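Reviewer 2 asked us to include a model.

Predict the structure of this chain.
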Amino acid sequence: MRDETFRSTLRLLFSLFIIHPFLFMPNVSNLIKTIQDIMRKDAGVDGDAQRLAQLGWMFFLKIFDDREQEMELLRDNYKSPLPKELRWSNWATDEEGITGDALLAFANNDLLPKLKVLSGSGDIVTLIKAAFDGANNYMKNGTLMRQVINKINGIDFNASDDRHMFGDIYEKLLKDLQSAGNAGEFYTPRAVTQFIVEQVNPRLGESVLDPACGTGGFLVCAIEHLRKQAKTEAHERTIQDCFAGIEKKHLPHVLCMTNLLLHGIDVPSNVRHDNTLARPLRDWCPKERVDVIVTNPPFGGMEEDGIESNYPAEFRTRETADLFLVLLMKILKPGGRAGLVLPDGTLFGEGVKTRIKEALLTECNLHTIVRLPNGVFNPYTGIRTNLLFFTKGAPTTHVWYYEHPYPPGVKSYNKGKPIRIEEFEAERAWWGEEKDGFKSRVENEQAWRVSIDQIKAGNFNLDLKNPHNPDTGPGDVDHLLPEYEKLLAQIAETRGQLKAQLMEALTK
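Predicted model (structure tokens):
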């Protein structure tokens, strides 16, 4: 029991490596502000992100040390995974202790390097090493660093066991800090991840994958969904190992591991730091196929040169979302189910996009497209998005569309008023059962059905409007401008390819 308590506490401590301290200690917010003001005087700390990272590893060590001292009292045989010289109580608690250049040298040459390669085995060592893998000491003034440490020592940490509270704080942090990157990735609203997971409905014993997992939102939703089905300890052990994720960038990868730890995954070693698309499509073997994929692949960005050569010639493109769609078709098991977010551009695009959609409709049953309104991903992008649901193994005969409306009185979403899960109640009631071919579904003002013959006649254009609510104009600028810019990029790419082919022909 004590081991489990310590393990649980460690998960919370690990999460604090990322979580901003004053979010959960309102009574010491002024003290935190004082610490930040001290750090602003240091020439080495550039901006809020570095201040957050610096405070993160300092608070981690302080809280971990407090809990270790408690465990030493509770357990006669407790042995710290940290060497004595690296423990906070050994070098940080004396207000008149190491400071100035000596403190900087210790942090830069001993403390952080040794924590990154900590020796030993077991979950605790693994988690500590993961926590400090990307940690840096940004401070250049050892006297100011000592002042920060002394202020931290003045805080009384009484970590709560209420993991729901920490989960709420973690989610708020992600919403506040996640921003669009240069590869087109965005924070996916929890309502969207929850709705997709609910409708794909992963079940105990099935394998779940997010090949572009970001900070782990889809994986966490899938784990919570599976836990509702769990009845025994064996079921919980199954949940610990049934999922996998891949994330290209280091910081989201660390955030994802933290998020999973916070949700009861002991060691999230099945979340890899890698570029999923860098692996040739032919190298994915049948034993790696999965039952369920839930994901929001990056869109609006282009992959680096050469990535497209990992895919068959007819599907080669640098558009990230399109390549992920090809990948999903490959790595789903027969009968496997997928739910994902895709931009409008994939639905109406031609050329390579047409060939990808033809393959999708031939190899899979694309049974449902939920058309989301503008602003779901505000403030990161104005590109309209869709939720696609398909099952591999049988061709599409018809596609059901559902146009998700704004709630009454709302004209657009924003950071302060995001889309909410309650808004999907109408879709939930309408959804029906896939096993009976969704026979209970009926057309209404929001829902309509389109046959595969009509889609083929339209050259596989899936950007089909609601016949019960026809457009009265050309569309809004927030929607049209990003699509126009994307079209220009595609034209430039095609022009470049033609030029290269022409030059090659002339030099022969």
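Strands lie at 208-210, 243-247, 271-273, 290-295, 332-343, 364-371, 385-392, 398-403, 447-451. The longest strand covers residues 332-343. We have added this to the supplementary material.
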